[in-house]
Amino acid sequence: MVENRDSRDVQSSPIEIRPSEALGSEPDTIGPYRILERIGEGGFGEIYAAQQVEPVRRRVALKILKAGMDTKAVLARFEAERQALALMDHPNIAKVLDAGETQSGRSYFVMDLVKGVPVTDYCDRHALSIKDRLELFIPVCRAVQHAHQKGIIHRDLKPSNILVTVIDGSPRPKVIDFGIAKATTSSLTEKTIYTQQGQLMGTPAYMSPEQAEMGALDVDTRTDIYSLGVVLYELLAGALPFDPVTLAEKGYAEMQRILREEEPPKPSTKASGLGAGSPKSAAHAAATDPRALTRRLRGELDWIVLKAMDKDRTRRYETANGLAMDIRHYLEDRPVMAGPPSTT
Fold first, then answer.
1. How far apart are the C-alpha atoms of 178 and 111, rounded to whole Å?
2. Which terminus of the chain has fewer Cβ atoms in its 10 Å neighbourhood, N or C?
3. How do 58-65 and 107-112 pair as beta strands?
């Protein structure tokens, strides 16, 4: 699934540690998988790099339910994530390879091992141009479109869930972590998943207004379009539209109001440093003069991002493919679907 080390190259090899440190009472081998090291964790699962020894030898990621987290609600979420990934087959989405239970009854599933870094970090480290950032973002939209066609809404799209790995010398983004995914057509599991009223699902800085309402309005695939817009905003402007620290300091009600009512500065304004909170050296990261970056973003790129992030979901792109298509039109110097915001 994910190996994300900011201080290491994306192609570095996992370092083997004593399995007893990782899984406690579990054996160092689960089925045909020998545990190597812990590489991440989520709300209810722990992720390990493992070596599959048969019928083929390969490095994989193994996600296992945390000890003591075998409540009905958690088991249902874990099974839903596993089923969501199993439904999809796309080169830019981590794939499920196997599933089962340990000797002590803890559920697990096995995925592609993605050795990568968040998409924003990759772009900044390699000082990618605006064109290259847009080219890298298009397959992310295609992956989200594939999920939507399979009836899956991700609901937590953000840079740490869009990792870039290098394959044959070329960067490839991979969408990971469908831990809070939602089905649009049929249930992902026979177990009942109940989201408690008032329980926040997702990451506030990347969350659509309707998702932040926490149940007041049912979310659909357009909530992922909004999150894609926020990620694109950050890739282009070098900063988020709303400061995550400020959002974290606010109570739920104020955070909801900000996301529902306050208009973010345009990416070009944020990149110029005139917006609230200066960007993190966006121009330097993109190897672009700050004034040239502002000019590049002003106009059609501003329009594309703000259309994806429209407060009114009926005015957003209807599909992730629609967003990808408008980006492609921009790159090919063709007319885009997005336009300048109206006075209203």
1. 12
2. C
3. antiparallel
CA 227 to centroid of chain Cα atoms? 8
pLDDT, tens only, 227-244:
999 999 999 999 999 999
92: number of Cβ within 10 Å: 18
Query: Which residue type occupies 181?
Result: A
**Could you give the residue ranges of the DSSP H alpha helices within 262-316?**
267-271, 282-285, 290-297, 300-308
Q: How far apart are CA 109 and CA 135, in angstroms?
A: 32
How far apart are the C-alpha atoms of 107 and 105, rounded to whole Å? 6
* Cα–Cα dist 339/337, whole Å: 7
What gap in Å lies between CA 320 and CA 77, rounded to an integer? Answer: 25
- Residue 177 is a catalytic residue: no
Beta carbons within 10 angstroms of residue 30's beta carbon: 22
Residue type, 339: G
Q: What is the largest CA-CA distance in the chain?
A: 64
pLDDT < 50 positions in the chain: 4-22, 186, 188-198, 216, 275-279
pLDDT given at position 289: 72
Nearest of 216, 243, 219, 181 to residue 316 by alpha carbon: 219
Where does the chain show beta strands of DSSP type E?
29-30, 33-41, 45-52, 58-65, 96-101, 107-112, 117-118, 152-153, 162-167, 170-175, 182-183
Closest CA to 37 of 13, 17, 62, 53: 17
Map residue 145 onto helix, strand or coil: helix
Which residue among the candidates 112, 121, 124, 156 is catalytic per the annotation?
Answer: 156
For 185-198, the pLDDT digits (tens) are 545 444 433 444 44
Angle in degrees, 0-180, between the axes of helices 130-149 and 320-331, rounded to the nearest 10: 160
Alpha-carbon span 5 to 296, nearest angstrom: 32
